[in-house]
What we know:
- By secondary structure, the protein is an alpha+beta fold.
- It folds into two domains: 18-90; 97-244, Histidine kinase-like ATPase, C-terminal domain (Heat Shock Protein 90, 2-Layer Sandwich).
- It is 47% helix and 18% strand.
- It has eight helices and seven strands.
- Strands 2-4-5-7-6 form a five-stranded mixed β-sheet, covered by helices on one side. A two-stranded antiparallel sheet has the order 1-3.
- Helix 2 (59-85) packs parallel to helix 8 and helix 4 packs across helix 5 (136-153).
Amino acid sequence: MTEADPSARNGAPGAASSAARSAARERQSHVRHDLRSPLAVMYPLLSLLLGETAGELTPKQREYLETMERNVERLEGLLVSAMESGWMDFSAAPAEPSAVSLHQVAEEAIVLALRDGSGDLEIRVSGDAPPALADREDVRLVVGALLRNAATHGRAGGIVEILLGAGAGGTAMLAVSDDGPGIPGTELERAGEFGFRGASALEARTPGLGIGLWVCRRLAERNGGRLDIGPAAAGGLAVTITLPAAAGSPA
């Protein structure tokens, strides 16, 4: 995918029309559908063949079909990972900065995270941050991705902390930390690189493309902010997004 110049996305608020955004989102929806449609055909056919509905299988035929089934499942996992990372949405529409409540976005992300299978986690929110000047959809994608990352790599039944605050130089901050195994210091500096997956994730065969934190970093940067990755106080990973505060917010 060819990435547009991020500076072209940081125009004045309201420069990009809502019609353009809606059209871009609709195109992305079609792409998602078209990518997953073949899998909806392949799964039942493989199931029928493995169930010997079309005739008895030789041991070698079964071996080949089971290999196909495993790879179809892996392909679906990779597609889901790409969709959930926000990679496809990243270039779907130009940014539209406005005053965004980080606390409100965090609460909405928690509801979605618990609904989508992170119910064994305890997610806590503390602190307060001034409204950020950013694209609300970009912020939603980042916070959602960070919660999914914590749920995937954190300790089962563990605690995820969302800390809000005001940073230096008129900025708003949101940090997500977990109490999982974290990332070794030797790998931390590469954690936000495109496609990077740590040794523990590879060993555990954790699903994913290694692009989630990269997408989060680029979304932060296109809104004039940054993403910092480091060890959490509880021993896991802490990821902090810092964004410009909206005009009129306390310094």
